[in-house]
Amino acid sequence: MSYAVTGKFEIAADSVNPRKVPFRTTRNGRKIPVIGLGTFGSDRFSAEEISDAVIGAAEVGYRHFDCASVYGNEKQIGAAFKVILDGGITREELHITSKVWNDMHHDVVSSCKQSLHDLGLDYLDLYLVHWPFPNFHPPGCDVDSRSPDAKPYIHKEFMKTWAQMEELVTLGLVKEIGTSNVTIPKLNLIMRDAIIKPAVNEMELHPHFQQQELFNFVLSKNIVPIGFSPIGSPKRPDRDKTETDTVDIEDPVIIAPAERLGVHPAVVCVKWAAQRGQIAIPFSIHRKNYLSNLKSVTENPLTEEEMTGIAGVDKNCRLIKGQVFLWKENQTWEDLWDLSGKITAP
Ligand SMILES: NC(=O)c1ccc[n+]([C@@H]2O[C@H](COP(=O)([O-])OP(=O)(O)OC[C@H]3O[C@@H](n4cnc5c(N)ncnc54)[C@H](OP(=O)(O)O)[C@@H]3O)[C@@H](O)[C@H]2O)c1
Known about the structure:
This protein has 346 residues and is of the alpha/beta class. The protein has one domain (3-337): NADP-dependent oxidoreductase domain (TIM Barrel). 34% of the residues lie in helices and 12% in strands. It contains 11 helices and 10 strands. The protein has helices at 3-6, 47-60, 74-86, 108-119, 155-171, 184-193, 212-220, 252-261, 265-276, 287-296, 304-311, and strands at residues 23-25, 31-33, 37-38, 64-66, 95-100, 124-129, 174-180, 200-204, 224-228, 279-280. The strands form 2 sheets. It has an 8-stranded parallel β-sheet with strand order 3-4-5-6-7-8-9-10. Strand 4, helix 3 (74-86) and strand 5 form a beta-alpha-beta unit. Helix 2 (47-60) packs across helix 10, helix 3 (74-86) packs across helix 4 (108-119) and helix 8 (252-261) crosses helix 9 (265-276). The N and C termini lie far apart (55 Å). The mean pLDDT is 95. It binds NADP nicotinamide-adenine-dinucleotide phosphate (NAP). NADP nicotinamide-adenine-dinucleotide phosphate binds at residues 38-40, 66, 130, 180-181, 202, 228-236, 264, 266-267, 281-284, 286, 289, 292-293, 320.
């Protein structure tokens, strides 16, 4: 029975032993479980529902949580962490990520301290620059919304933000730092100029958007890839959908192994992610779903043929396009992703 019912943190009878969950090791020798719980409820779930799911997820064996200040729920998730820690799980057993939002690139230390305060923690295992663009957008805004003072990626400016990320490590407030939503040309410059190199890169990764080139690049630089929207974010808000978007969990190549194993196609996406070599951070507040996602990385792997089949279904279908970060008129979202191989000119 869950905490919500008993008011007591209890390891669930059907839990997965966290020691059985595989992990990836960063350049600094730190271990990150290959599956973490996403905590972005979008506009569908309240902060309290997500906080309950964090407790429920810990009761079934999750030890890795992907948070961010912009998700607007760190205070409530902090209350969940207190329940988990009071319930006997040690801080060292948990791997907790947070991220600095775009309007705080100039004051990363304050932003991190706020997240630590809200989450009720002394340190974060991982802190990410959420997006490489310093533009504020209110949560839930429409994709056509543009910030009047929107700026492009300016490497010199980004490195000022990165220097503050490095300071967080020096201060002992975070164990490791990383990037998110960056491209190969941006990462090349960041790797060249960073004193503390990114330990991870969080990027959109699912069967229909495998980003093989960036994935290979990240691995070649000893950066651990963390894949967000690993199931293809099937329930993202309509404002984030376009007519050409494809649906991973409706793909026959994903459905076939799901039928063989008697699981939901979402579970096949998580298995594929873990077996391919990235960390997956699927979101669900529903016990049945988050438990089956966790179990998926410890039992019944996909066969080599199934892995090869899924490698062949990439549709280059980016779902989180980032339109709101465009900085001038008449641009298309592709400009954010440096498709020419060079950073798009300001
Ligand atoms: N760094 C970034 O910029 C960035 C961007 C986007 C997301 N993220 C992170 O990535 C996390 C996950 O991304 P996401 O929420 O966009 O997409 P996702 O994890 O691909 O998809 C989540 C949806 O899949 C469904 N689902 C999950 N497990 C399932 C299962 N076993 N069976 C059936 N359905 C299942 C859930 O439906 P139900 O709700 O019905 O359970 C949920 O709504 C976020 O929460 C956030 O932490 C980071």
